[in-house]
Amino acid sequence: MLVVLVMRMLAETAAAIPSSGSSSTYAEDGIGRWAGFTVGRVLGLVVLMATDDAARAQLAATAGLVAVVAGIHLVQSRAVRRARPPVRSPGRP
Question: What is the pTM of this model?
Answer without folding.
Answer: 0.48
